[in-house]
Amino acid sequence: MQKVDPKTLDANFFSLLSDRWALLTAADGTKCNPMTVSWGGTGILWNRPVATVYVRPQRYTYGLIEHEKYFSLSFLPEKYREVMALCGAKSGRDTDKVKECNLTVLEGEKAPCFAQAELTLVCRKLYAQSFDPACFADGTMDESFYPGKDYHRMYIGEIEAVLKG
Hints:
Layout: E1 2-4, H1 13-20, E2 22-27, E3 32-37, E4 40-45, E5 48-55, H2 60-67, E6 70-75, H3 81-89, H4 97-100, E7 105-106, E8 113-114, E9 119-130, H5 140-145, E10 153-164
Antiparallel strand pairs: 1-10, 2-3, 2-6, 4-5, 5-10, 6-9, 7-8, 9-10
């Protein structure tokens, strides 16, 4: 993996997230858990390159990302579609997804990253806040996406490293 400046990326994050998905990964020192995500974004906030991700409170990754300072977003080649599907369907509470998917964790980064990734963003958590239903300008969002009132928590992370493989 080669480290590159975020400003040199020409990746289409709209397509990467919605079509290819990403592995959002955090670890607590003893366990590493990747979770498939298709919602998120990148940009500039507070004069820093950032990535934004959203996690529901019932997800195992929620507890990891809540208590840790770093997380990563890894974009794997299309040939890993089954890995992405498994990491979105199974819980890290019951499954060691890294082992089951035969993923190779790279050493030396502040958040778990995978050798199989084409692109990885290593992020330091800057901000976290749960969605407030009173703030929906379009009321259909609450009805459509949150019938169980399990509102996503938004995490904004400063992109400290970009790895290309």
